[in-house]
Amino acid sequence: MFQREWRRSALALPFVALGLVVSLAAQQAPRVIEVKAKKYDFDPATIEVQQGERVVLRVTSTDRLHGIGIRKFGVKAEVPKGATVDVEFVASTAGTYKVLCTEECGKGHDDMVGTLIVKAVAP
């Protein structure tokens, strides 16, 4: 009986630790990452963050109306021409996610895709 309870506790420990890391990161000031949205691409095209990190994407549209969306983290914002918009989220789940333009911006709109890489936190 004791051995079974101990095993259950041992299995739960990494999840508790991960929750603590995510919680602590959420309390820290967010990391601000500058992103430019321009004719059919994001610059930088790839963004890397740590799991649990609070992130602000400071997105500037240089040429026309664009949008930014990351479905997994509920990110969706319109970015008017010449404007800068901040979107904040916690990168709670490790993985690779598409960053999409959410506003029809011309013929190359469907190719306007970036990448968000959320690196796993070691237990």
Quickly count the domains.
1
CATH topology-level fold name: Immunoglobulin-like
Weakly predicted, low-confidence segments: none
Enumerate the strands of the largest sheet in spatial order, edge to edge or round the barrel: 2-1-4-7
The CATH architecture can be named as Sandwich
The fourth-level CATH homologous superfamily is Cupredoxins -  blue copper proteins
Distance between the termini: 27 Å
Helicity, as a percent range? 10-25%
Structural class: alpha/beta
Report mean pLDDT, rounded to a whole number: 87
Find the count of extended strands (DSSP E, 2+ residues): 9
Shape: elongated
- Gyration radius from CA atoms, angstroms: 18 Å
Largest sheet: 4 strands, mixed
Instruction: Name the CATH class.
Output: Mainly Beta
Protein architecture, described:
This protein is α/β, with parallel strands linked by helices. The chain has a single domain, classed as Immunoglobulin-like. It is 21% helix and 44% strand. The strands form three sheets. Strands 2-1-4-7 form a four-stranded mixed β-sheet. It is elongated. The model has no long low-confidence stretch (mean pLDDT 87).
Task: Explain briefly what this protein structure is.
The protein is an alpha/beta fold and 123 residues long.
